[in-house]
Write a structure and sequence with these properties.
- By secondary structure, this protein is an alpha+beta fold.
- It has two domains: 4-26 and 106-183, Topoisomerase I, Chain A, domain 4 (Orthogonal Bundle); 34-101, Gyrase A, domain 2 (2-Layer Sandwich).
- The protein is 57% helix and 15% strand.
- The chain has helices at residues 4-26, 75-84, 107-144, 150-183, and strands at residues 41-44, 47-50, 55-60, 64-69, 91-93, 98-101.
- The strands form two sheets. Strands 3-4-6-5 form a four-stranded antiparallel beta sheet, with helices on one face. A two-stranded antiparallel ribbon has the order 1-2.
- Strand 1 (41-44) and strand 2 (47-50) form a beta hairpin.
- The longest helix is centred in the C-terminal third of the chain and has 38 residues, at 107-144.
- The protein starts with a helix and ends with a helix.
- The relative contact order is 0.15.
């Protein structure tokens, strides 16, 4: 049976990977995705509210997102929020819906997005290595205090290292997938 701290270590590493995965989903690629709007909030009756909670967002075949607010009076708020964001897209407001057209990105833009993806994944790797460092420090402390034998310490160190390797590999896989998504036409 795994000790509690090994389970906790795995849970922390999983959370780190999931957080990086979510951040990568929000990263803009050449393809339209409603996920790019998740961080954009509008003032909705005095409450900052994500666009996806006040409108229906759909993807069209012509590389565009169509945002149809549930209340027409917030159309301008959505348009202003998108313009103020760092998406680099110009919303087209026709009075009923907002269209966000995703132009085919240049090679330079794609390379920039790949670089940003790599930075995000690297942050995840650092978080996982920090978790490993903290647990190994805890193991040494337990051995020093006589709460654990040297054999147990070595065995748990190996388990923690294998968890670290597993989640680092998972992050590498996420990066490869994102890179492929960004670079495909």
């Amino acid at each position: 049976m795994k000790p509690v701290f090994i389970k906790q270590t795995e849970e922390k590493m999983k959370k780190s990977v999931n957080a990086i995965e979510e951040e990568l989903k929000r990263l803009r690629t050449g393809r339209p995705s409603p996920a790019v709007l998740e961080e954009i909030k509008i003032d909705y009756y005095g409450v900052p509210t994500p666009v996806n909670q006040v409108a229906t967002i759909s993807v069209t075949e012509d590389r565009a997102l169509v945002i149809k607010p549930w209340e027409r009076n917030i159309l301008n708020n959505i348009e202003k929020a998108i313009q103020a964001s760092d998406l680099g897209l110009n919303p087209i407001n026709d009075g009923n819906v907002i269209r966000l057209i995703f132009p085919t990105p240049t090679t330079e833009q794609r390379e920039k997005w790949v670089k940003k993806s790599k930075e995000i994944v690297e942050q995840g790797k650092i978080a996982i290595r920090n978790i490993r460092r903290d647990v190994l420090k805890e193991l040494k402390e337990m051995k020093k205090n006589g709460e654990m034998s040297e054999d147990d310490e070595k065995r748990y160190e190996k388990e923690v290292q294998s968890l670290t390797d597993k989640y680092i590999k998972e992050l590498d896989s996420l990066f490869e997938k994102k890179e492929k998504e960004i670079m495909e036409f």
